[in-house]
Amino acid sequence: MRSRLPAARSRPLLVLAWAALLGDDGLLGEPARRRAGRAALRALPALAAVMTAALLVARPLAAAPLGRAHAAAGLLLAGALAGVLVRRLRRGRAGRRLDAREALELGALVLLAAAALTRAAEAGGLPRDAALQPLVYLAVAALSASLPRGPGLALVAGALALEAGGWWGQGGVAADLPRLAARGGFIALFALLYHGVLGARIAAGRRAEAAAMERRRRELDERARQLRLLAVSGEAAEGGRAERAERLGEAAVLETDGAARGLLDVAGAALRATAAGAYLLSDDDRELRLWEGRAGSRLARVLAAGEGPLGGVVKRRAAVRMHGELRGLRHREGGPAPRALLAVPLLSRVGGHLRGVVLADRDEAVPFDEADERLLEAVAAELARAAAAERLIRDGRARREEQERFYGAIERLNRVTTPRQVLDAVLAAAADMVTVDFGAVTLQDDGTGSIRHKVARAVLAGGATAAELEGKEFADNGGLVACAVRLGSSLPGKALRLSEAIVFDEETRLRGLSSLKILPLRTGDAVLGTLVVGAHRPLAYDGDAVRQLEILGLQAGDALQRARLFEATERLATTDGLTGLVNHRTFQARLDEHLAAAQRYGKKLSLLLTDIDHFKSVNDTWGHPVGDLVLKGVARILQKEARVTDVAARYGGEEFALVMPETDQAGALRTAERIREKVAGARFRTEQGELSVTISIGVATFPGDGRQKAELVELADGGLYHAKRHGRNQTVALGQLRAARRA
Questions:
Q1: DSSP readout, 495-517?
Q2: Phi then psi for 569, rounded to 5 degrees?
């Protein structure tokens, strides 16, 4: 087959040259030409900007007539500016935002165009401070307003540099420095002017918006108070409402206003009235204030309650019907005077107290009859009923929200598993139920024989920790906290002067609070501690709030007991019952965790395995109780000498282990020697006399001695075995020993 194939011939030199120059991969091929053209187009704005800036700085532009170079620079600048604008419009239609490069190109070309026009005018014979100079200032202001802050500041700096360059190009005459300073000052002023004016407008708009919202809020509050008077006679206004109650009240006002507007529209259509509206009496019964009006009714917002026909309704508590030439009517704002009027009193549903007036009028002198009066009285009754119904709906919503918050708090308490989480959850739940400007949880401890109390958690409004109080311990005394624990009931039962009352102990006083309640945390018949809540507002904790907090205290006591039992169970499952160190299973899990972290982050890790020398003879000679005493003593020394991040464990029998994260071999050997010397110097007192023991230690380090857990354990155990075989009471790093032997 090879003999039949023609011999491979090399390509002619001319073909190779053509491919190298004009082929698709050549230096002058079509793809290369396209890339070069795109690069030239991208460089055109920068070239035009550099050329124009050079001519602006050069002296001939201001001192000699314009020449071909200036015309060429102007055409190049205009073409570049037009290209940049067209490209920006296309990208804007495509939804692409202006990037920093485009912003700098566009801003520089606009600024240079304005400066070129100004300098051209000066070269044409106009004075230096001619009217074209403000073009530069306007360009700076427009660019500062429309471009991002970074490119805008860069263009302002460029404008200042251009002015300084022009002064230098014209000889740097000292006499022109004042003019240069004035131009630079105007450039900076126009750059800052937009931001200053915009900032002032934004601030003014925010103030106006806040004022309008505050006015609207006050109107809604006033309307809510008046509408609640329609439902229950003589009910006192609520003070210090929480934010949720305020939102509910405002929503209720808006819904009631909508219902009233609909009723008045229906009444106006049925009565063929021109205007229809409802007014409410003020607190002092001197004014009638507009509640709602029929669509299109131009009614006055405030009327005197003792004047005119409406004043007669207020005084007589009876309906008024009038027609003809009516005088003394002021309820309309502008327009012709009504020729017929019907007004009926607005009475509360409970007690029949007068709360306002409902009216309807006509432009024609067609009198209202008794049927019309009964219809308007029915509308007034429905208005009062709507307000009462909305009040019930609002109260129902409030109660439902309170119940949801209460059950949500109980659910959160049932989910937590640690005592600290229980304390945080109970304080958060209390703050969600009532006003809590100060909150604390105290716990009782009688493990030492004498009852003591500890402030386990203390917070202020907003969740800030009361650091000076948290952690404070005090003995059982006559304070409110200790009494609440002893009695198992909520305190105080009556109003107290809290600045003088003993809450925790004599040394601690709670000042600035006007309300205080201390509730026991109970589980079964036992009282574990108390929940302390305080508020700046007087009478913050009424009967309903106290009952909810008492139930919360019961649930918190059960949750705290469960968390303690869970913590104790977890401690029993993870620690050795005799020594208090972590057990073998937990040691294996912790070693896996620390070894994985060392492998992930490239850190060192050392493992120590230790064994008590001749421990069997200790048990045989002194007895197993003494052996247990020795085990506990060695465990205490190991735990004391270990760092917080280390894991001290009972490996099994008389063997112990120590995992030391981020520790190299040298550090592990120092720690091992320190532990060995401490154990050798310890004396264990028994009924038969003093006893001392020694230990042998094996050390292995990741990654030098091994990269897997099995390798490290095997090497540390080998070091321990070597120490046992060669005299005991020593520390051996088998990896180091093998390296020395190889050397």
A1: ---TTTS-SS-TT----S-SEEE
A2: -65, -40
What residue type is 683 in one-letter code?
Answer: R
CB 648 within 8 A of CB 658: yes
Query: Does the reported pTM lie above 0.70?
Result: no
- Interatomic CA distance for residues 391 and 231, integer angstroms: 7
Of residues 500, 510, 504, 505, the one with CA closest to residue 534: 510
SS3 sequence of 602-663: CCCEEEEEEEECCHHHHHHHHCHHHHHHHHHHHHHHHHHHCCCCCEEEEEECCEEEEEEECC
| pLDDT value of position 242 | 47
Name residues whose C-beta falls within 8 Å of residue 390's C-beta, 6 or more positions apart in sequence: 227, 252, 255, 256, 259
Q: What is the CA radius of gyration of the chain?
A: 45
Q: Is residue 424 helix, strand or coil?
A: helix
Distance CA 567, CA 453 (A): 21
Q: How confident is the model at residue 233 (pLDDT cuts 50, 70, 90)?
A: very low
Task: State how far Cα 687 lies from the chain centre.
Answer: 64
CA 234 to CA 251: how far, in whole Å?
23
Structure tokens at 61: 């532009």
- 687 contact partners, CB below 8 Å, separation of at least 6: none
CB-based contact 640:725 (threshold 8 Å): no
What is the rounded distance in angstroms from the CA atom of residue 572 to the CA atom of residue 714? 28
What's the angle, vertex CA 599, arms to CA 581 and CA 719, rounded to 5? 55
Poorest-confidence range of 191-195, 544-548, 596-600, 710-714?
191-195
Cβ proximity of 371 and 286 under 8 Å: no
Token representation of residue 283: 């607190």
CA dist 385 and 373 (Å) reads 18
Dist CA 215 CA 204 (whole Å): 16
Active-site residue among 654, 673, 687, 714? 654
Residue for token digits 């009040």? 391
Q: Which residue has the tokens 């509910």?
A: 248
641 is catalytic: no
- Rounded to whole angstroms, what are the CA distances from 621 to 220, 295, 633, 655, 696? 90, 106, 18, 19, 21
What distance in Å separates the CA atoms of residue 148 and residue 131, rounded to the nearest whole number? 29
Are residues 425 and 417 in contact, defined by beta-carbon separation less than 8 angstroms? no
Identify whether the C-beta of residue 38 lies closer than 8 Å to the C-beta of residue 30: no
If you search the block for the tokens 């920006």, which residue do you land on? 88
Q: Is the pLDDT of residue 188 over 60?
A: yes
Q: Contact, 502 vs 477, CB < 8 A?
A: yes
Q: How far apart are CA 532 and CA 482, in angstroms?
A: 12
Q: Which residues pair with 535 in a beta bridge?
A: 515
Per the CB < 8 A criterion, the answer to whether 460 and 438 are in contact is yes
CA distances from 197 to 138, 145, 155, 209 (A): 15, 11, 20, 18
pLDDT digits (tens, 9 = 90+) for 38-71: 777 777 777 777 777 777 776 444 444 556 666 7
Q: What is the pLDDT of residues 643-692, one digit of tens each?
A: 989 999 999 899 999 999 999 999 999 999 999 999 999 999 888 888 99
pLDDT of residue 368: 93
Q: 638 pairs with which residues across the strands?
A: none
Q: What percent of the chain has pLDDT over 70?
A: 80
Omega of the bond prior to 703 within 30 degrees of 0, cis?
Answer: yes
